[in-house]
Structure to design on (127 residues):
């Protein structure tokens, strides 16, 4: 389920995944957090629309539960190797039958409110 038109390049995608995973941490992001995330995303060379697809279809399905009311949230973020491992496992998981349907339903859900607000802030910095 690769959504960006190029073949998946893990070296190029890893910093994007790590930056976008920051939208799902439990702490309040500061201006310098937003600036750092935007800088990483800008350097990736992906368009804003491509970045939003990566957020919604690759990162959010893995990390959205961190913002759940029932979760004990990760407050400081994740190491890049952890982010890559978790997202790769998600992307490589076999999707057939019911699993494919559940995956589609899960990725089509709206982002959590906190992540949406954070993404809009990042998006404004990328424009």
């Amino acid at each position: 389920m690769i959504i960006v038109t190029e073949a998946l390049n893990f070296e190029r995608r890893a910093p994007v995944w790590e930056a976008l995973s920051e939208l799902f941490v439990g702490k309040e992001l500061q201006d310098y957090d937003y600036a750092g995330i935007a800088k990483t995303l800008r350097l990736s060379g992906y368009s804003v629309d491509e970045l939003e697809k990566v957020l919604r279809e690759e990162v959010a399905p893995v990390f959205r539960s961190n913002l759940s009311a029932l979760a004990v949230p990760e407050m400081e973020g994740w190491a890049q190797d952890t982010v890559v491992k978790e997202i790769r496992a998600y992307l490589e998981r076999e999707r057939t039958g019911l699993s494919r349907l559940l995956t589609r339903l899960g990725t089509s859900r709206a982002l959590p409110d906190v992540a949406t607000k954070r993404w809009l802030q990042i998006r404004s910095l990328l424009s």
